[in-house]
Amino acid sequence: MATGGWGVLVAIVLALLWVALAYNRLRVLHHRVETAYGQIDVQLKRRHDLIPNLVEVARAHMVHEAATLEAVIRARCIAQGAASTARRHPGQPGAMGALAMAEQSLNEQLGQFRLQAEAYPQLQDDERMLQLREALGSTENRMGLARQAYNSQVADYNRRAGRFPDLLLARLIGFAHLDLLQAAEGVPAQGEPRGVSDPEVAAAALQASRPCAS
């Protein structure tokens, strides 16, 4: 084989080797994002499971606050729908944006509930309520840590997927940019892109919330 032919063959082999290595790097980083999001999902499920118990205990005392309690349940239902969509599309902009907004709304309703609950001393002293509040607080703390770990993995993945020449392969085979998960308080997470959304994923999040409409 002529020298030129060997050169072409070596170039092809090296190119294929680079593609294989780059793909494996991206796949490993993407899997780490999915694994990290799984820890968020565990804490979200626990939080959403605790809220009906919280409302049930409060209902016996807050007999004149039915609207507040129903608002909490409705916000929890919407948050569950958003979490279900995010579970199927971890990191996708539409899913992460809908989840952050739903959790922010749920936090606001829980804040209103806690504010009104202060007017009921017997509820404040109820052992079941104390246990549920402690469990919710612990879950929210763990979710904050899980969110930080997830955002760190997303940042690592996005750096690799957005770096030339890996960027070319990422675009070619569908390793899309992933979104950070903003804090439930509504403050954008550092480095989160704005105005980015996947219409299909956003539509799925909207569809998931419809059974909660009053």
Automatic annotation (TrEMBL):
Keyword line = Membrane, Transmembrane, Transmembrane helix
Asked whether the keyword Transmembrane is assigned, the reply is yes
Q: Which organism is it from?
A: Comamonas terrigena
List the lineage, top down.
Bacteria, Pseudomonadati, Pseudomonadota, Betaproteobacteria, Burkholderiales
Name it: LemA family protein
TM ranges are 6-23
Question: Does tRNA processing appear among the keywords?
Answer: no
The UniProt entry's sequence similarity note says:
Belongs to the LemA family.
Q: Where is this region: Disordered?
A: 189-214
Membrane association type: Single-pass membrane protein
- Could you tell me where this protein is found in the cell? Membrane
Instruction: Give the UniProt entry's GO cellular component terms.
Output: membrane
Recorded hits in SUPFAM superfamilies, A to Z, give: LemA-like
User: What top-level branch of life does the organism fall under?
Assistant: Bacteria
Recorded hits in InterPro entries, A to Z, give: LemA-like_dom_sf, MamQ_LemA
